[in-house]
Amino acid sequence: MSEATHDAPSGLVADLIRKHGALSIAFDASIPASGVTALFGPSGAGKTSCLRMIAGLDRGAAGRLSFAGETWQDSRRRIFVPPHRRRVGYIAQAPGLFEHLDVAGNLDFAWRRAGRPADLGRDNLIDQFGLRSLLARKVVALSGGERQRVAIVRALLSDPALLLLDEPLSALDGAAREDLLGRLEVLHARLAVPMIYVSHAIDEVARLADHMVLLDAGRVVAQGPLNATVTRLDLPRALIEAAGAVIAGVVTAQDSADHLTELTFDGGVLLLPRDNAAIGERLRCRVSARDVVLTLERQNGSSALNQIACRVIAVGDADHPSQALVQLAAGGTVLLARITRRSMTLLDLHPGKLIWAQVKATALGA
Amino acid sequence: MVGLSSEDVEAFGLTLHLAATVTLLLLLIGAPSAWWLARTRSRLKPLIAAVVALPLVLPPTVLGFYLLLLLGPQGAVGHLMSSLGLSLLPFTFGGLVVGSMLYSLPFVVQPLQNAFEAIGEGPLEAAACLRAGPFDRFWSVALPLALPGIVSAAVLGFAHTVGEFGVVLMIGGNIPGQTRVLSMRIYDHVEAGDYAQAHTLSICLLAVSFAALLAMTLLRPQLRANV
Questions:
Q1: Cβ <8 Å between A158 and B125
Q2: From the CA atom positions of chain A, what is the Rg in Å?
Q3: Which among A223, A246, B65, B152 is least surrounded, fewest beta carbons within 10 Å?
């Protein structure tokens, strides 16, 4: 399957330009060959356009695009591989189900054209996304969440080499959204092929992504491993609300009386409100820069359950002149704190200084 | 009202035969044309669309007249056909088919084009990303999704062909069993002052047209629900 030469990068390498009216999009990114890469940015940043260029649905783009060493597009060499030869599983915001077929027919459409690969675990996928009881349903009779689940399984059954998801949760309400997010987390743990996940919701990204490409006004402004990217000090203003660490750790204790989970990570321990964590389970937790309080000494009389010893790495500007962003190292984990400039002066923060980061457990969500 | 003479029955059968042939051929030609019109970004699109729509506004006699010239022994097509050893089309059933196809073309192509346009990009792009090539997308996605439109196109094309007169008059003549269709027969009866006979045939035509439209309206919601 992989025809990559030994020195070619094996992921997706894009250098594409596209004009969309007033917005000109320059998609210059390198996406790893495994894991979930979030294409993150505010509405109108050009995320969907980038995804469509990757899928080959936009012939108006110029530049180069390759995946796994195979050229998909090179406008100078007049190469353009059409979407049906790219082996991408593309799940659009409006999932484009075939209304003349039932759910089983939709899934079969994909599976048949992939040559009915037995190793795809068709039945497992159908169960994993809860479609067993829906197979005979008409597409028009499905709810929004059910449609997205059918579209995702249908894309997976086409045996894609690359999976593209365009805000699959954006049209869903609370319960359906949480349900699908949970299923996507499970998929993430099992999926062998890389996934590019477009979103403007940082909580989805924090739970699903391993890497991140940040888009703002049609430009790639940052890219890299998830936590390294969301804790950068030079994020554009439009994305600054997303600033904050995503901490990955292992559950080491569960206090069922207080409904708290102890998460041990490289740099310390966090308590978070959660009921059902199993010891040894890997969990992620987003610590927004707004929820971090800095103190010079460990506090004894504080209601904040989490106190983490850190060292200041660097200090940068926030989006308001009264505030600053402080990048902190807790062991091998980078945290971010948003504080006022006045506090920064009072605490005399400078790179290398040792400090305590307090985080309320209640800010760490469920 | 009086009963049908054998000549009338013959004309009736010929009309149905003609309409069925024309409808079938028009669907075969019209579907790809309408697909092209619905999808293309070519600069030629307005021109082609106008040519296809022309029979809507053109008097059928004008259309028939030019066809007669074109297909006749002095016309370009007629000349070509006779040099190839083919018999000439005017005043034959084949000529009627060609004339009727041109005359009913917009009634088939436009519903098809509307139906294809109504599908939107979503299902077609999804199919492309599921490895369906262009013909596969047309056959497995566009055609089934456009089925209600295909039914409309067939019914309209059929009914319109059944009722034509001007084109038939020009290039069909009035040859029994060959080109003498119902509308010609009605005209003959009226010319001869035989209003009763004209009345019977007219009722037949009315019934066919009404049944076709009724079938379409009854069938459409069912198609939507079942597909």
A1: no
A2: 22
A3: B65
State the pTM of this model: 0.85
pLDDT, one tens digit per residue, over B128-170 is 999 999 999 999 999 999 998 999 899 999 988 988 888 888 8
Lowest mean pLDDT among A2-16, A162-176, B56-70, B97-111: A2-16
Enumerate residues 6+ apart whose C-beta is below 8 A from A82: A56, B128, B133
pLDDT at B223: 65
Concatenated DSSP letters of A271-290: EEE-S-PPTT-EEEEEEEGG
Protein fold of A244-364:
OB fold (Dihydrolipoamide Acetyltransferase, E2P) (2.40.50)
The enclosing H or E element of A355 equals strand A354-359
A258 touches chain B (CB under 8 A): no
- Low-confidence residues of chain A, pLDDT below 70? 1-9, 366
Q: Taking CB atoms and an 8 Å limit, are B123 and A110 in contact across chains?
A: no
Would you give the DSSP letter of residue A102? B
Instruction: Give me the residue from A92, A94, A154 closest to B130, CB to CB.
Output: A154
Q: Is the pLDDT of residue B222 over 80?
A: no
The residue of chain A nearest to residue B140, with distances taken between CA atoms, is A109
The SS3 call for residue B2 is coil
- Which of A80, A88, A81, A90 is CA-nearest to residue A48? A90
Q: Would you tell me which CATH number, out of the four given (1.10.3210.10, 3.30.420.10, 3.40.50.300, 3.40.50.2300), belongs to the domain A12-233? A: 3.40.50.300
Q: What is the pLDDT of residues A289-302, one digit of tens each?
A: 999 999 999 988 88
Please tell me the distance from the alpha carbon of residue B6 to that of residue A62, in angstroms, as a whole number: 70
* Closest residue on chain A to B147 (Cα): A100
Q: What are the domain boundaries of chain A?
A: 12-233, 244-364
Separation CA A110–CA B226 (nearest Å): 21
* Residue A136: exposure state from Cβ atoms within 10 A (0-12, 13-18, ≥19): exposed
Could you give the angle at which helices B195-226 and B182-191 cross, rounded to 10 degrees? 160
Domains in chain B, please, with CATH?
A: 6-226 (1.10.3720.10)
Half-sphere exposure of A95 (CA within 13 A, CB side): 27
Instruction: Please tell me if the domain spanning A12-233 has the same topology as the one spanning A244-364.
Output: no
